[in-house]
Amino acid sequence: MNVPWTDGLDLHLSVIDTFSGSKTFNTILRTFDAGINDQNYNLFVDLMTASPDGKFAYVWYDDYDYNNTGRDVYFLGIFNLTTGAFTSISADSLGVFSYQYQVYVTPDSKSLLLATYSGYRAGIRVFNLSNPTHPKRVTDLTPIPVPGRGFPYVFNYQVVEGQLYAIDSSGIAVVFNFDSQKGDFRERGYSIFQGSNAYYGGLAFSPDGLYMYGTDYLHDQVSVFDTSKLAVGKSSLITNIRAPYYPYGITVSPAAPPSRQRMSPRDTQSPLRRTNMTPRGIASE
Amino acid sequence: MVNIQTWEGGSYAYWPAFNVDGKYLYGTAGIYLGNYAVLPIDLSTNTPGNAIPIMGYNSTNYGQSLAGG
To answer: pTM score, two decimals?
Structure first.
């Protein structure tokens, strides 16, 4: 498990042993230092993700430039988790929005996605990670306007089974093809799934990509959606699961799902019957 | 559904992450006197384990702050 932190002067990343059978379980194995040395102690950590192959950690951080521009400058920092080597690229150089909701690396560790925002239009910039420490821009994805809603603010997104699901927190899902080999990033469609005054924070998917889970934090619940309906505008909401209090971040357990035999008769009458999974094993904060 | 009490003096436990076998859940939090820690939860008993103190601080709020198995 990787955890970023700062003392204001530098950026650090500690690696914790979370293998429960290990003698060093739940202890810090090593800590990497970025070597930034901000004498004004203005460094802040904003976000982090690790590439699914476990080789690199991508940290979004900001450093207030007190002496020169007076700007709060945002950066993508990249730790090599094998060597500890650190590379940094500014948001300006990447051409992306300073305020990222997430730093997203695709499941194959080959693409990085960051949000763009210009002229009240939000988009997603796709970078190639053939060189993991030097992201190379591939394309920009901008959703088409939704009638009555305008351009969706897609700051939350994930790639699952060749589809990119991008969510506007007010309750719009936009679905793109995501085939970096063929360069196919066409928008497939969108749907509006907003409940009354619902706003969605975190986003997670079942491993088979059939279900999307969104935290509806104003209603203390996790909403479960049928992903096959998100691109075609049909009612995609399957159910809501009560989840006090103010659920926001969400993740899906890597543990094997419960067997079908453990499902209730009610479960077998729902679309969940297509898989052995039930919406269990999710955690929200 | 299980709600697990946080640690005494603990504030928010931010964006959660499972370990590789799904037996433990981890969160990050600012805890007593502003220290920063990673908080493990044993999912076999739904009880929190000992906090893992981290030097310095982490300014993430509603964002990803833990990753990797």
So the answer is: 0.87
